[in-house]
């Protein structure tokens, strides 16, 4: 992170001695640079690697001349307008819906007992991989899904599954639902982290004392300063949902699918000439996501302009009752949907014969699990290898960056924050597709190493965001004390900061593992389909007909990160069981 | 590099701590000036309203001055100049408002943390036990610091500093978080120990009683003017205690 040194060596004054370079400060000084290279390098190279073939240049496949042919071919693709429309609409709609739910949830439940429940549910729900959640939603809401079984035949009179298209409806409703249930926990988490920064409780209390209703108090006194703090994560959500592949493959329409899914299809087409078009499609996806971001930004301006008078009009009960009602309904609905889909997955994984409309499979057996065991083993092993590899690389860099901030007493600037979010703001399909073309051009063998490095791009930002808060909040006097007792900066890290930050570091590792385990696209593209992880297998199975086996894989994919979180919470407590002050 | 490589050896113990023409600036604004000498066993109290730069002065002496500040002048221990040494090589013991016992270490671990390395494990353990006996906490070595009372923690923090064999002690409002009865006892203990060990000490405080108990000279810091830094009378010289 390009940290800015705030010291300006004044005329005739000397830099004070705390800044002498030791081995440790030199070592961690490299971390920010390495991190920037790791994050910016592949994204830039990937976009360049997509730009070449998009204009006909890819010597490895015989493209030696610049031409506009790939673009002409792309524009001639039937249904391109629907693909683009689907990407933009599902991206913006799911983000708007998720943000509304999160804002109303915070406004309704702030400082209540339900809120503590929601907070407790947050980490496990966050750990659910996108693919598993999408599969769960599909099995829950499909015509023969759990919900319809619960209502039938008593309420609906259906003896056979009704005939409606879900998942895969043409308007993308299923896709939007699937995206929203996963975006809500994420946006809730970043909001919770940002609330103390804008002194939310004090502002709310002040507004309550002035006679504002609770929901109105939050909307008028807290939200205007909260939103700027979560703007980047919101943009990341837009970028993700307008370009996501695995959720769209499972829940989205297929004729035509959203643009990102088409790009992956074209790239995988046995007809190699399709690859040129895939690159043009990848750049178009970049444009589509940027357009979605721009529209959102304009929407922000509009809302800010419209709400200015609303904020100052003195109305104490704006949206007070309606907001509270909607807030509790939508919050519990989105959490309930996710929890119910996971329950459904569990039932499907243990079902043998489960005819419609019975709501409970009988008998429940482990037969499906036994059947899957042989193939589950190797896939689990590869999943773990990739997850551990990328998380370890990322945690070293993240700790290095934060140590560098600590020993040099600087803070990363705005530009550095943007670099951190870069892989989350650029549609992955755009630069990953370019990296594949580069791989082909430079004849780099795709495999586990490229996949691990690719996963780092997505793992590192989340780990940084999770650890930075705890690292920066650690009282600097602990380190000063250690130094005054003769400990060098390196020894202070090993003997003071590392043990005191063990719990947040363990949680950051668990988050890294969860993110890596959930990755679909980088595994598929950078591994050239040769690396089978639980996620790639679950997504592949989801398009087939075997619900039982799909459920087994989705659950396995979900259990691994859950296990990681359990360990991250348990181990530090176990290690410090004799230390009361570290038992939070 | 072990800490002994660049440390003055033990014969430099019990030397005076000098602040030679020390001036701290924030940008072009002077914050604090100090020119004084602290004799072994003497406690010099620095007083003044909050925001006057007392803590900045301490941070400068200990080697933690924030990068935003610029410093002139020197901190010396006897003949050796500390100004350019990193914090960990200065051997200036620090006592904060809070005891700051490391939560991941036992009481004994906290005491051993600051002890110079190299001695046998048995000897270290013995010293820890002895130090605990010294502050009436026999048998507390394996206790979790979180289970100690406020007064017990403050005493352990003091012994941790002394066991690290510092060459001088810096105290940052060391008694302000203690209740009245405890404060009296702690003052007694801290100042007795400092006198016994013959260490020069600089104490930053806003409590008159702290300064009068310390018995040493009192320096009253006053806010320095923003613009004119030239012709003001020198502040920070000794005033009668």
Molecular structure report:
The complex is a heterodimer of chains A (584) and B (241). Chain A is built from 23 helices and two strands. Chain A has helices at 23-54, 69-75, 80-109, 113-127, 130-141, 146-151, 173-194, 200-209, 214-243, 246-251, 259-268, 274-312, 320-349, 367-408, 414-425, 428-441, 448-473, 476-484, 489-500, 502-518, 521-526, 534-542, 547-575, and strands at 57-58, 63-64. By secondary structure, chain B is α/β, with parallel strands linked by helices. In chain B, strand 4 (69-77) and strand 5 form a beta hairpin. Chain B is globular and about 50 Å long. At the A-B interface, helix 18 and helix 19 of A face strand 4 and strand 6 of B.
**Helical content class of chain A:** over 70%
Tell me, briefly, the overall form of chain B.
Answer: globular
Q: Write the CATH architecture name of chain A.
A: Orthogonal Bundle
Report on the biggest sheet of chain A.
2 strands, antiparallel
Strand portion of chain B: 15-25%
The largest sheet of chain A has its strands arranged as 1-2
Q: Count of DSSP helices of chain B? A: 6
Q: What would the average pLDDT of chain A be, to the nearest integer?
A: 90
CATH topology assignment of chain A? MetI-like fold
Protein name (chain A): ABC transporter permease
Membrane topology (chain A): Multi-pass membrane protein
InterPro entries (chain A): MetI-like, MetI-like_sf
GO cellular component, one term (chain A): plasma membrane
